[in-house]
Amino acid sequence: MRFFGTLIVLIAIAAGVIYFTYGSIEPCHVLAREYQMRGVNDEALLGLIDLDAQDIYSNETSGYPVMECVGRLVESWGQRIAG
Are 59 and 29 in contact (CB under 8 A)? Predict the structure, then answer.
């Protein structure tokens, strides 16, 4: 029982950190924000200076299924850790 309590607390802390960092806990919104923060696909932004980068990344990730967003987030975070 103590294990499940600890697990719930750890999940709540992780969700709080994600929300604080990205402003959302929805995976595709977080992925769009991650792409914006890392500058992924910035060549797609050339010539689109008048548009908000967050909108461009949100449009890109809105078509992804949730599990694809989760997979890409894990991959992106792994790249951050690897350097």
Answer: no
